[in-house]
Write a structure and sequence with these properties.
It is a single chain. The protein has 657 residues and is mainly β. It folds into five domains: 141 residues, Immunoglobulin-like, CATH 2.60.40; 119 residues, Immunoglobulin-like (Sandwich); 93 residues, Immunoglobulin-like (Sandwich), CATH 2.60.40; 106 residues, Sandwich (Immunoglobulin-like), CATH 2.60.40; 110 residues, Sandwich (Immunoglobulin-like). It is 6% helix and 35% strand. It has eight helices and 41 strands. The strands form ten sheets. Strands 33, 34, 36, 37, 39, 40 and 41 form a seven-stranded mixed β-sheet that branches. Strands 17, 18, 19, 21, 22 and 23 form a six-stranded antiparallel β-sheet that branches. Strand 36 and strand 37 form a beta hairpin. The chain is elongated, with a radius of gyration of 38 Å. The protein starts with 54 loop residues before the first strand and ends in a 22-residue tail after the last strand.
Length: 657
């Protein structure tokens, strides 16, 4: 809400020119409120609803830097009370190369306190900066009437009770909102009519009335209760009250109640809005609809007691212009509950939409006016084609998965040669795929998805897309002749599930392979400057013979250099593998692997580093195994701090190896 909540805007300055003499364009704040003609609020008023997050600001695209020497273009966001100097509240770097298009920056949430501000930005390129023009932004956190409890409404034209005769003649009752502090055009009065002198906060509103400047000037802040609304709620003591809400969305407390008495014939009335219990997601979705039998449903409409119910009454429920079966009224058994079948839920399409639910009470040949409307959000859409058994989760029209092992490449089969490798699944995309829709793959007994594919722009129905299945998931069940695999599709609201693909998993793994050892490391497991042979001659790694080894098996040693002393903090790039095809002697008595590349594999461990080693076994018959891991400490730094190397022998102990 603008003045007088805010001080008068002082004289403002124009935009600063950019380096090329052109003024930088003003920042853009898309959430600024707009009037009925689409024009932005003159004061740059932003809605209260956005103040719980950072305020998004669009900076129009500039001539982005292309010289890598600049590193990045910088946008500094300035936010300060009107008339004050530039004050930076956030800064965003856009590294070169910069993607084309406008850029999004923000004003931090903690800066969005009540007041009128100048918003601008500085563009900093290569150390030079230019400031944009200033855009006025108004942050309104003050409720109408300073947040005080508004005075009670004043009833016009009626003295005493509201009678049937008065309603028949005039069709309405008017009430006046007393003028209040800082009343502004586009303020609204949201008004309520209740039979409860202490109604809950969930009391449904009747409607709301916006006030124009002419209404304010004429002191005619009028709200109207129409005959149908009053009759629908029946006779007896009633209470009318209102809340004030300004254009920004600040909503004040309830007003003082105005008590009334409505004197009508005792016909069915006071029809409370129907209630529709929603799913945990706050809407009607397929999960909600399929919790019961198909086309019986558990989506329900609940009708609370109305005034003067009688045996023989029928409740006629209208679900978005689709009638439900009439409900017979038992005055002693409210609330009445009516199921909503799937055929009615989807009668007007899958949505997303807002269903409007009302009801009437039929007594004899006459119907009451409709109840107040209850609006219910609905989204029954799915990612992919629908199916005849909807809303059932399983959709048999979705394509089956195809699964292949990384090495075996056999359809829906994983073999020992695939050990340690991710598998690849392929599926044919469903009808009308939309970017952002997700496919999640489920593997065996793992309850959570193990892989995901997000539909990309350009994906079309029938496209064959890959999904990688991580080894970590496969490793949980390596022996299963019919492991169930399936996927779900989601548009963010509703799921569909494809049929199960049975995958034959036969990965035989040899367990208990002993870790490699380091014969020259001594009893403390350290290779240092005095190691013999010297480190620059290489490191020898011993693989013991094993009954599981046979001639022509392949043992591959894995070497990983680390910064930590215990095989932790791997050093990128300091990694290699050494494959040995075993002869009979090596299989029985073991063998040594010579890691000879000093510069690349040993030298990087300067000060108390380590090498982490293990080996894997691939047998001629297809079985596989992986040894335990062990490490050796590698330290080329003497206690003096001197570092040994091939050109700097620091150890006094001789070595003839």
């Amino acid at each position: 809400m603008p003045s007088p909540k805010f001080p008068i805007d002082p004289e403002r300055t124009g935009p600063n020119p950019g380096e090329d003499g052109m003024a930088l364009p003003l920042p853009i704040v898309p959430v600024i409120l707009k009037d009925e003609d689409g024009n932005e609020s003159a004061d740059g008023l932003v809605p209260r609803s956005v103040l719980n997050s950072h305020l998004q600001v669009t900076v129009p695209a500039w001539s982005f830097s292309t010289d890598p020497a600049f590193g990045a273009d910088i946008v500094a966001v300035g936010w300060r009370p009107v008339g004050q100097d530039f004050f930076e509240v956030s800064r965003v770097l856009f590294p070169i190369p910069i993607e084309p298009g406008d850029k999004i920056v923000s004003v931090p949430r903690d800066k969005l306190v009540h007041g009128i501000y100048d918003l601008s930005y500085k563009l900093i390129i290569g150390g030079n900066s230019a400031e944009s023009g200033k855009k006025k932004i108004t942050v309104d956190r003050v409720e109408p009437d300073d947040g005080q409890e508004p005075l009670a409404l004043q009833m016009l034209d009626v003295v005493g009770s509201i009678t049937d005769d008065y309603l028949t003649e005039h069709g309405q009752v008017r009430f006046k909102v007393p003028t209040y502090v800082d009343v502004q055009a586009r303020d609204r009065a949201i008004y309520y009519w209740s039979d409860n002198p202490n109604p809950p906060d969930s009391e449904p509103e009747i409607r709301e009335q916006a006030f124009s400047q002419q209404d304010i000037d004429n002191d005619q802040l009028i709200i109207t209760m129409y005959e149908a609304d009053i009759r629908d709620r029946g006779p007896g003591p009633r209470y009318i009250f209102y809340r004030l809400r300004d254009w920004a969305g600040n909503r004040g407390p309830r007003s003082t109640f105005l008590p009334l008495f409505v004197d009508l014939l005792p016909a069915p009335g006071n029809l409370k809005p129907p209630r529709v219990p929603l799913s945990a997601r706050g809407l009607i979705d397929r999960q909600h609809a399929r919790e019961g039998a198909v086309d019986q449903g558990v989506v329900t409409v609940e009708i609370d007691a109305y005034d003067n119910p009688a045996v023989g009454d029928e409740v006629l429920i209208d679900w978005d212009e689709n009638p439900l079966a009439p409900l017979a009224v038992d005055p002693g058994r409210f609330p009445l509950v009516a199921p909503v079948p799937w055929s009615v839920l989807r009668a007007n399409g899958l949505g997303p939409m807002t269903a409007r639910i009302t009801y009437k009470v039929r007594r004899g040949s006459g119907d009451t006016p409709s109840s107040l409307e209850t609006r219910v959000p609905m989204d029954l859409t799915v990612a992919g084609q629908d199916h005849a058994n909807a809303p059932a989760l399983l959709n048999a029209t979705l394509a089956l998965l195809e699964v292949y092992g990384a090495k075996s490449q056999t359809l829906n089969t994983l073999l020992s040669e695939d050990f340690g490798e991710d598998a690849e699944a392929f599926l044919t995309l469903f009808d009308d795929p939309q970017p952002g829709q997700t496919i999640e793959l489920y593997w065996g007994s793992i309850s959570t998805p193990v892989a995901q594919y997000i539909v990309q722009s350009g994906d079309v129905a029938g496209k064959r897309v890959p999904i990688t299945i991580p080894w970590s998931a496969i490793d949980q069940d390596r022996d299963n002749p019919a492991l169930p695999v399936y996927y779900t599709t989601s548009n963010g609201i509703n799921l569909q599930q494809a049929r199960i693909t049975s995958v034959r998993v036969l990965i035989v793994v040899i367990e208990g392979l002993k870790e490699p050892s380091f014969p020259h490391a001594g009893k403390y497991g350290v290779l240092n400057c005095c190691a013999c042979p010297r480190l620059w001659k290489g490191v020898w790694v011993k693989v013991e013979g094993n009954p599981a080894f046979d001639e022509n098996d392949v043992v591959t040693l894995h070497w990983q250099g680390c910064e930590g002393t215990n095989g932790t903090s791997p050093i990128p790039g300091v990694v290699d593998t050494f494959a040995t095809k075993l002869n009979l002697d090596q299989a029985r008595n073991g063998f040594e692997v010579h890691v000879a590349d000093y510069e690349n594999l040993i030298a990087p461990m300067v000060n108390n580093g380590s090498a982490l080693c293990y080996y894997d076994l691939k047998k001629l018959n297809g079985a596989v195994g992986v040894s335990k891991k062990d490490f050796v400490i590698i330290n080329r730094t003497m206690p003096s701090g001197e570092v040994c190397s091939p050109t700097n022998e620091t150890c006094q102990e001789p070595c003839d190896k």
